[in-house]
Amino acid sequence: MSDNATQAEIDAIYSLHEPLYTGVAWTTVSASVVQLMFLAFQVCERDTQTDTQSVTEEILKPVNLLIFFMILTNLGSCVLYSPLTSALPFNLTFATSQVLGSLFQIIMMFYTWVRGRPVILAIAPSSTKTCFIVLHFYGILVSIATTLSIYCSISYEDTTLLYYAFNILSDLCSAVMIAFDIFVLTLYVLYMRQVHSDSHARDMSRRLHVISTFGAVTTVWNLLWQMEGDVATYVESSNTVAYWTMNLALNALYLLMPPVYLFIQLAMKEALYRTKMMEVEQKLATVDRAREMAHQNGFPAQQSSKLSESGGVKSRS
């Protein structure tokens, strides 16, 4: 067989396009439903066990809202990109998919900042202003790049120059996200190294340790996602079976990586909940010991009960 693929071979590869991307879309739909259900359970049931805020206040927390909108934007972008919406006008589905995909990336950047902010403040507090500027700069870049992408795809005019501008902006957006992720990953690693040799510090900052551990996994996964997308975009094209097969597979993999990212965020929430419950149990045990000691030393029951109230722990029903 010659190196160059025949038209029949290319057609055979692309005959897999519809079933492959339909499968990717349904996988994303299934994953998103599970994620939304688990997020609702965490926010409405578990978070209210370890906090004094109402369900509405828990829902409106920035972290919970950002996860919720990441799930929705990723779901919408993937479904609109798939053959499931082939009956709809292409310009509409393409433009909407591009907008939702861009929103997902912008929200992801802000989520990285919001979730990692406690560690950033602990390790490099002077960098917060710079991070805030970078986030807004990234949002502007992505918005412009998305506008150019949509215009170049649906316009019947010569958009060669605009397409070059889009490629430059797209590369810049990718570079900013990768640089920001590397910066945050570095802070996570520095924090974990800082508390690795100090068990007392680790016990005092269990929440930050959980955020650093899962945050490091998250940023590494996001870096892999960005680099995988760059490989799919900039690998040298050739008219070979290997190229067309790889191109199809890489694009499908690129769409499947965000749901895994979102599952990692939900796993982090679960780990933070368990950490908080452990702290609650320890506080309750401390209160019980104080009450027992007060009883043995002959303190009035009323005085020992005040120790329980001062613990500041919301008991579970």
Explain briefly what this protein structure is:
This protein has 317 residues and is an all-alpha fold. It contains eleven helices and no strands.
Plain-language structure description:
By secondary structure, the chain is mainly alpha-helical. Helix content is 83%, strand content 0%. The protein is built from eleven helices and no strands. Helix 10 packs antiparallel against helix 11. It is elongated. It starts with 6 loop residues before the first helix and ends in a 7-residue tail after the last helix.
Give the arrangement of secondary structure elements.
Elements: H1 7-14, H2 17-46, H3 55-59, H4 62-81, H5 90-123, H6 128-154, H7 160-196, H8 199-204, H9 206-234, H10 241-296, H11 301-310
Which class best fits the helix and strand makeup?
mainly alpha
Could you report the average pLDDT, rounded to the nearest whole number?
A: 84
What value does the Rg take, in angstroms? 25 Å
Count of alpha and pi helical runs: 11
Strand content: under 5%
The biggest sheet, with number of strands, parallel, antiparallel or mixed sense and barrel status, is: none
Distance from N terminus to C terminus (CA atoms, Å) equals 71 Å
Beta-strand segment tally: 0
C-alpha geometry: elongated
Order of helices and strands: HHHHHHHHHHH
Low-confidence stretches: 304-317
Measured as a percent range, the helix fraction is: over 70%
Entry keywords:
11 helices, mainly alpha, 0% strand
